Amino acid sequence: MYIEMDCPCQGKNLDKLLQPLILCILAAGGDMHGFAILKEIGKMPRFEDKVPDATGVYRYLKKMESSGLLTSRWDLDEEDDGGKPKRIFSITARGKGCLANWGMALTDYNKYIQSLITMINEAI
Known about the structure:
Elements: H1 18-29, E1 32-33, H2 34-42, H3 54-66, E2 70-75, E3 86-91, H4 93-123
Antiparallel strand pairs: 1-3, 2-3
Helix pairs in contact: 1-4
């Protein structure tokens, strides 16, 4: 349980980990619209079944598309949700390469974090 304080030490500002999470969701689940991605993010233990800030996630999706990690297209399926168009996101080959890099980087970080946790526990 966290000690109450207004500080990034509670891990709430880990927006950079949205990128590998979104890439992983799309690589594993196939093409999805933004709300479906939001629901998948909300299933992660860190979010405790709370849907993350939609505006921030959509902004991040747009940024990832601009970087060539994702592509999108409009789905005009009239049978779904009253015929409202939805933007469908897909991971690109560049996005899959980025996801592979994240896997290696997070493995390295995990080793470092485990060592740091041990040091913290020994120090307190």
